[in-house]
Structure formats: structure tokens, C-alpha cells
């Protein structure tokens, strides 16, 4: 069986020499980086040689402190920085990147900024949208000032948490295209979600995620109900080819039917609306159950307590 896999791998490489070349470049870059970047490797070896001391450090720190969180996750972050660096080195060896030799590519990718250049670069990164910041950007800052890169990473996580708790993270699933990113639609979603928050008063991540499910299912129910009403009460445009659909004049009708009959399109919209109505109601029940079974019980007089399972016999438990 192992022989078959090896033979298959050889055949695939022969059929796809470009993939083989990329793999070889990646391996070569990894070897060269490991031999040329001693600072990062020395830090990694020190970390790996003292895992117990790190755990002891975390135990004596505040669990939510910046230092404790960084000690727990910095290996994962360093791995992502390393991957980004390898990809950049490979890019420099390709025609689009200048066809540099491996040594030249490594030298260019691992160049450390100094003084005003580094400060200007950091200000530039700080002014960028959080969505535009890449692992390579963080790696460039890390080589100049690891603490500044750590602070930038923590700031990204803080902004992500704010997006999650404010509802903007969930709202983005309805904005896959530029034309869908309308302030009014975003405000409508946030208003619905805020009303759910006001009623349920979430206390943690699970509560917030369930409210997101509630708001998303409600919004999709509204959308498909509107689509169903449009299809059931207005005339469709005439059937068009794919090319004609790009230039259709909406004045000829109110909506473009999918490649099914009119009745099937109306029924489909009704089914989708019903599906999301049931999802909305199921989420409401789940939130109710979560609150019911997650409420802590405090017993002020624990000398004798009667305990019973659902439908079971009560049992007296004495202290």
C-alpha cells in the first residue's frame, strides 16, 4: 500500500512539474532560512527547551494578562509569520518577483528596517484597515521590534472581539459584494441584533453567538419572505439567455426568474422563508434552554436538599 502511494506521488509530480518546483523552492527556502536566521531559531529553541518554565510563568500571571496570552499562542503566530516569509521568498524567485537567486530572495525578504524607515512603516500599518494587514506586515515589524508586533497582534484581536460583540462580524455575511455593502442594510441588521441583546442580555461568547444565529435567521426569513411576495404578486421578466441577463432592462419586469417554472420559483421562495422561520424559532428555544440549564443554583441552607431527576423519585441529601 505504501509503495502505491509513493508511486502515485511520483506520477503526480511528473504530471505537474510546477507544483514540484514550488515544493522544492519551499523546502529550499525553509532550509536556507533555518541556517541564516539565527535570532528567531534561537528564540524558538529557548522556548522549546523550557516548556515547564513557561507554564509556571503563566500560572503566576493574571490569566487574562497580555503576557500570559502571548506565551500561550506565540508559537502559532510565529508559524504563520514563517509561512508568510517562505511564500514571499518564493515570490522573489519567480519572474513576477524579479527572478532573484535563493540567497538574494532571502536577503531581501529578511531585511530588517531601521530607524525612521521602521517608524514610518509602523505608522503606515497602523493607518491601514485591519482587514488589509497581512502576516508579512506583522513579520516585518517583528524583525524590527517583536514587542511592537505583539502589540499589533493584540490590537487586531481586540478589534475582532469588538466586531463580534457589536454584530458587525455577523453582518458581513450579507455583504459578499461591494454593491451589497450599504450602510442602511448594515444598520437594519445591527438594530435587530441590538433589540435581541437588550432582551436576552448576553453574558458571554456562547450567548453572543446564539444571538448572531438568531439575527441571521431572522434576516434571512425576512429576505425570503420578501422574495416570495415579489414572485407571487408581480410579473417576471421574460426568459433570457445568460448574455441577455447582463443587459436586461428592469422596466420590463420586476425580477429575473431562475431556470425553473414560475410556480416552482414561488414555491421555492416560500420554502426558503419557512426554513429560516423554523431556524429562527429553533434558535429561540435553544437560547431559552441554554438560559434555563445554565443558571447557577445557590443553596443558602444546605443541611437538607431534595434532589430528583426528570420524573424520578426525590432523594434527601443531608450535609
Compact overview of the structure:
The protein has 319 residues and is an all-alpha fold. The protein contains 14 helices and 2 strands; from the N terminus they run ααααααααααααααββ.
Polypeptide structure, described:
The longest helix is centred in the last third of the chain and has 33 residues, at 262-294. A hairpin with a 7-residue loop joins strand 1 (304-307) and strand 2. The chain has 319 residues and is mainly alpha-helical. Helices cover 71% and strands 3% of the residues. The chain has helices at residues 2-15, 17-36, 38-49, 51-60, 66-93, 102-109, 115-127, 135-144, 146-166, 168-171, 183-200, 205-233, 242-246, 262-294; strands spanning 304-307, 315-318. The model is unreliable at 1-19 and 43-52 (pLDDT under 50). It folds into 2 domains: 2-161, no CATH class; 168-294, no CATH class. The protein has a two-stranded antiparallel ribbon.
Strand content: under 5%
Helix content: over 70%
Query: DSSP helix count?
Result: 14
Question: How many domains is the backbone divided into?
Answer: 2
Shape: flat
Order of helices and strands: HHHHHHHHHHHHHHEE
User: Based on the structure, what is the oligomeric state of the protein chains?
Assistant: single chain
- How many E-type strands? 2
Q: Summarize model confidence as the mean pLDDT.
A: 75
Strand order in space, largest sheet: 1-2
Query: In angstroms, what separates the terminal alpha carbons?
Result: 63 Å
Rg estimate, integer Å: 29 Å
What's the story with the biggest beta sheet? 2 strands, antiparallel
Structural class designation: mainly alpha
Amino acid at each position: 500500500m505504501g509503495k502505491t502511494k509513493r508511486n502515485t506521488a511520483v506520477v503526480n509530480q511528473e504530471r505537474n512539474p510546477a507544483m514540484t518546483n514550488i515544493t522544492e523552492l519551499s523546502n529550499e527556502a525553509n532550509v536556507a532560512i533555518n541556517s541564516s536566521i539565527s535570532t528567531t531559531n534561537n528564540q524558538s529553541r529557548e522556548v522549546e527547551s523550557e516548556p515547564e518554565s513557561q507554564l509556571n510563568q503563566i500560572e503566576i500571571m493574571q490569566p487574562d494578562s497580555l503576557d500570559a496570552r502571548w506565551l500561550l499562542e506565540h508559537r502559532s503566530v510565529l508559524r504563520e509569520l514563517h509561512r508568510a516569509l517562505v511564500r514571499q521568498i518564493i515570490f522573489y524567485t519567480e519572474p513576477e518577483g524579479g527572478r532573484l537567486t535563493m540567497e538574494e530572495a532571502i536577503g531581501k525578504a529578511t531585511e530588517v528596517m531601521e530607524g525612521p524607515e521602521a517608524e514610518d512603516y509602523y505608522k503606515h500599518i497602523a493607518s491601514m484597515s485591519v482587514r488589509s494587514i497581512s502576516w508579512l506586515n506583522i513579520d516585518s515589524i517583528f524583525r524590527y521590534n517583536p514587542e511592537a508586533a505583539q502589540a499589533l497582534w493584540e490590537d487586531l484581536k481586540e478589534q475582532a472581539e469588538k466586531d463580534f460583540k457589536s454584530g458587525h462580524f455577523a453582518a458581513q455575511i450579507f455583504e459578499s459584494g461591494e454593491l451589497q455593502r450599504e450602510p442602511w442594510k448594515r444598520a437594519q441588521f445591527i438594530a435587530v441584533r441590538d433589540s435581541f441583546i437588550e432582551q436576552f442580555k448576553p453574558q458571554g461568547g456562547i450567548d453572543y453567538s446564539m444571538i448572531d444565529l438568531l439575527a441571521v435567521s431572522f434576516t434571512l426569513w425576512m429576505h425570503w419572505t420578501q422574495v416570495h411576495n415579489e414572485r407571487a404578486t408581480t410579473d417576471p421578466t421574460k426568459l433570457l439567455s445568460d448574455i441577455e441577463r447582463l443587459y436586461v432592462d428592469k422596466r420590463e419586469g420586476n425580477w429575473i426568474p431562475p431556470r425553473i417554472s414560475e410556480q416552482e420559483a414561488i414555491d421555492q421562495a416560500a420554502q426558503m422563508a419557512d426554513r429560516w422561520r423554523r431556524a429562527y424559532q429553533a434558535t429561540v428555544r435553544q437560547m431559552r434552554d441554554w438560559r434555563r440549564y445554565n443558571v447557577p443554583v445557590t443553596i443558602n441552607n444546605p443541611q437538607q436538599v431534595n434532589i430528583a431527576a426528570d420524573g424520578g423519585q426525590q432523594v434527601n441529601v443531608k450535609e
